[in-house]
């Protein structure tokens, strides 16, 4: 049973969020408030075990990716970036069964970019530990093994979940993705040395997941430092 309450609440946030996706000094407080409301709604969806159709999730993704498309990473305040990453992570958890590989790859690359503080073209952005932690949690959501309890409610849940994980692992081992995987692991290893305990713990957890499910032994010398 799908309640119409949450899709309507999401639409009510997404419309003004999209209007303010090009950040200005004046619009940033409004964007922060909208993203905080977004977080609350998505948290309520998960806690109530509601299912959101893919169309609603795609719609909800649009203003978030709009912020990332319309603003250079170096100009997005850390608070806004952290809230965007948290919303993407929450949406992905709701979308995991149906999310396509291209979207999965783009989310992985984006979170890896946040972890390593790299925008491209020789530019770097100083990102605080809280935002890096949000990106690390999102990476874990993208790559983790789903438990038997999580998949039990779905027909052929275990076999379907294992198939999705294999697809993700195969994509991560593709020739073009190996450098991304290596850079992300390197960034996570740096984050694991942080004095920020949540970032330290989540980095180690994500490193363990990547090594278990995504990095074959013959690639260790290629992508792991030292």
Quick summary of this structure?
With 226 residues, the protein is mostly helical.
Q: What number is the mean pLDDT?
A: 90
Strands side by side in the biggest sheet: 1-2
The secondary-structure class comes to mainly alpha
Q: What helical percentage do the residues reach?
A: 55-70%
Report on this model:
The structure is a single chain. With 226 residues, the chain is an all-alpha fold. 69% of the residues lie in helices and 2% in strands. It contains 11 helices and 2 strands, in the order H-H-H-H-H-E-E-H-H-H-H-H-H. The longest helix is centred in the N-terminal third of the chain and has 20 residues, at 28-47. It is globular.
Note the main attributes of this structure.
226 residues; mainly alpha; two-stranded antiparallel sheet; 2 strands
Layout of helices and strands:
Layout: H1 5-19, H2 28-47, H3 54-70, H4 78-95, H5 101-116, E1 118-120, E2 123-124, H6 129-143, H7 148-151, H8 157-172, H9 178-191, H10 197-213, H11 220-223
Antiparallel strand pairs: 1-2
């Amino acid at each position: 049973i799908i309640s119409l309450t949450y899709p309507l609440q999401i639409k009510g946030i997404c419309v003004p969020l999209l209007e303010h996706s090009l950040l200005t000094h004046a619009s940033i407080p409004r964007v922060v408030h909208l993203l905080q409301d977004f977080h609350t709604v998505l948290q309520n969806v998960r806690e109530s075990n509601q299912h959101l159709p893919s169309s609603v999730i795609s719609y909800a993704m649009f203003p978030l990716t709009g912020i990332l498309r319309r603003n250079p990473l170096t100009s997005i305040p850390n608070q806004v970036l952290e809230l965007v990453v948290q919303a993407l992570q929450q949406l992905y958890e709701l979308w995991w069964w149906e999310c396509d590989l291209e979207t999965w790859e783009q989310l992985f690359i984006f979170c890896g970019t946040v972890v390593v503080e790299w925008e491209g073209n020789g530019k770097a952005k100083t990102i605080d530990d809280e935002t890096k932690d949000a990106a690390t949690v999102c990476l874990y959501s993208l790559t983790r093994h789903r438990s038997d309890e999580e998949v039990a409610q779905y027909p052929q849940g275990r076999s379907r979940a294992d198939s999705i994980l294999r697809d993700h692992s195969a994509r991560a081992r593709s020739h073009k993705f190996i450098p991304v995987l290596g850079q992300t692991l390197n960034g996570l290893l740096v984050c694991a040395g942080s004095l920020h305990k949540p970032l330290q713990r989540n980095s180690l957890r994500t490193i363990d997941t990547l090594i278990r499910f995504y990095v074959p032994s013959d690639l260790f010398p290629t992508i792991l430092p030292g």
